[in-house]
Amino acid sequence: xxxxxxxxxxxxxxxxxxxxxxxxxxxxxxxxxxxxxxxxxxxxxxxxxxxxxxxxxxxxxxxxxxxxxxxxxxxxxxxxxxxxxxxxxxxxxxxxxxxxxxxxxxxxxxxxxxxxxxxxxxxxxxxxxxxxxxxxxxxxxxxxxxxxxxxxxxxxxxxxxxxxxxxxxxxxxxxxxxxxxxxxxxxxxxxxxxxxxxxxxxxxxxxxxxxxxxxxxxxxxxxxxxxxxxxxxxxxxxxxxxxxx
Length: 245
Hints:
alpha/beta; about 25% helix; globular; single chain; about 240 residues; seven-stranded mixed sheet
C-alpha cells in the first residue's frame, strides 16, 4: 500500500492510499485532477472519499469529486457546506464501522470549530490499523493496536505567541488556533497516551506555515516515540504496509 500526500495545510488537504486493486482518498481539498493523475486515471479502484469536515481546505472540491467517486462525511458537514448542485456525499454515523472493499472505516468525533468533524480509523490487511486525525485540538479516545498514525501537529505555542506579539498573525487567529488545532505539546501528549508497540510510521499533518518548525517537530517526535516520523507535505509518497521492511 502506498500513501501519497497531495497537500497538507490551510491551503488544501488530500491523501491517497492505494495498492494495485483499490484505493481510498481522505479529504477533498485539492483539485480532483491531481487525484486522477495519482490514480493513473483508474477511478474504479476508489472505494470512497472520506472527508473530515466542511472547511474549504478539506472539502472545497467535493462536488467535483462526486462526479467520479462516492464521498462520505458527517451529516453536520453536509449541512454546513454550501453545495451548488443537488448531489451530496453519504452521511456516516460516528463510531459505526463501514466496510468498503478491503477497507473498513470507523469515523469518530473530534474537536474543531465546525459542525460534526470526524477523524477516521482505517483498517486494511496490508496496512493494519491507521489512525487519521486532523484539525482538532484534542482527541478524547484512546486507540490500541495501531500500525500507522496520521496526526495533526499544527503549531508550537511559543512560536504562535511570538508571532502574535510581533503582529505577524492577528489575535483572533491566535485564539482560533488555540481552540481548534493541535499543538506540538498536545500531539506529544496523545502519543504518550497511545500504545505505540506496533506503530511503524507517524505522519505529522497540517503544520502551520508560520507557527511550526518542521525539522524540530520531526526530531522531537522521533526522540519521544522511537518511530519513523514524516512531515506530510506536497508530493510525499510512502509505503505504509503493516510490515514496513
